[in-house]
Amino acid sequence: MFHNRVLYEGLYLRQRKRQYLLWTLLLMSLNTLSMYGLLTLQFQVNHPLPPILSFWVHTLAGFGIYAFYRSTLMVPSPVPSTPPQPLLVTDPGELLCSVNGEKRTFPYGEIRYLESLENYVKIITSGKTHVTRLTMKEAEERLPKPTFVRISRSHLINTSHVELLEADSLMISGKSLKIGKVYKRYVHELLTELPSLP
Asked: Where are the domains of the chain?
């Protein structure tokens, strides 16, 4: 449970793979030493290696099954049968945020996509990239759907600027952005409804 909820979801799925690997190896080492001590000192087992190996084989298999479930079977919330049409690029709405300590507003139509940087977000517009202290979740809540759609843990796009949709990626302003496995079905169902998409 600690591995699944804290290490895998808290570190691995948040792209902190090195920390995840180090913590997992550390916990496995400590558990192995603990089991070795219990088996040899308390239960007087002469050959503790086979039961320890058996334990880790079953444990790692459980980790693998959980990772498989999280990456392939869990999908975002169901897509409405008829998704609403996206807002036009000329929509008057704006995203208000702080850039370099100053309040800035970005008209929705100028935003191409957003990219996650942990507790910061890069806002890519037609002419420039801006960095603001904002989480991807907060940005997703502030921006209107379905004009803005989350396509992965790292990217939130403006559907009005999608130039090309492929099986695992899409293109905006000449840049290819990967679509996450968990988001793939939702993104494809929504974007294939767009009349302007080539």
From this structure: 2-73, 94-191
Q: How far is CA 116 from each of CA 122, 148, 152, rounded to the nearest angstrom? A: 6, 15, 10
**Beta-bridge partners for 41:** none
Residues 6+ apart with CB under 8 A from 154: 15, 115, 116, 136
- Whole-structure pTM value: 0.52
pLDDT in tens, 130-184: 999 988 899 999 999 888 999 999 999 999 999 988 889 999 988 999 999 988 8
Separation between Cα atoms, residue 79 and residue 81, nearest integer Å: 6
Distance CA 21, CA 24 (A): 5
With contact defined as beta carbons under 8 Å apart, do 189 and 79 qualify?
A: yes
What tens digit of pLDDT does each residue of 163-174 get? 988 889 999 988
CATH hierarchy code of domain 94-191: 2.40.50.1020
